[in-house]
What does this fold into?
Amino acid sequence: MEGPSLFLLREETKQFAGKRVLEAKGYAKIDFSLLQNKVVQDIRTWGKHYLILFPQFTVRVHFGLFGNYRVDEHKAGKNASMHLRFSNGELNCYIAHIKIIEEEISDIYDWRLDMLSEKWNAAYVKKVVSQQPAGIYIGDLLLNPDIFSGVGNIIRNEVLYRCGVHPASPLGKLPSDKITAIIKDTHKYSLEFLHALPSHTVGKTWTVYNKKLCPKGHTVIKSVMGKTKRNVFICKVCQKKYK
DNA sequence: ACGGTTGTTAGGCC
DNA sequence: AGGCCTAACAACCG
It folds into this structure.
């Protein structure tokens, strides 16, 4: 799940803020008794982190590659990693990594880097990016969750096509205005992704991801690239390799 | 039926 | 110490 899906989950579970946990269980290795009878203070997201705030601690949920969830229903025969029941509904998380965070979340999360936060700040992202090694591929950099919080493999591939940049371009070889354009487009495309989610039409926004041809009819090459070893989809005509 | 995957962390090995 | 690598997750899709 990429950032926009987490944002949607937050929207779908807002009604649990202010509610008391009536039941908490699951196969996750946390002490569920800590959650029992506690009142949810707030529900937030930071990138791909789904955060349930309680007065003394925060439950951090990460869905990883395979995770998913159900609100007010559950999957038959599936074991939830975390099940929370409230008076007005329930949340079930599957194959999710659950962690209890003791720290104040404002100390560990910088909302200027969260693409879908109102506090997201393109100039600040640019500043952080400028401190990265010049040799790093832009394709790898976009998958750094500490900088491009919320960007996943679909968003990085789409943004790089939209900006006309080959993923194996080293950061130091990209013109400054091109870096700015990429940063701004991670935000813009994430919103398009988010808005397409409820109608299940995200696939219609794809230009290269899982495509054989780009919108201009050129061949899209699928390969694995960089340190992140994830699939990249590249149109060699539309995307320039800076070097 | 089975291989690939919309991530990330932990832990081992040099 | 720290960079690099891999396993783990155990589900869904085509």
User: Anything to note?
Assistant: The mean pLDDT of chain A is 92. Chain A is about 25% helix and 20% strand. Residues 1-2, 5, 48, 62-67, 97, 143, 145, 152-155, 202, 209, 228, 230-231 of chain A lie near DNA strand B (CB under 10 Å from a C1'). The first strand of chain A starts at residue 23 and ends at 25.
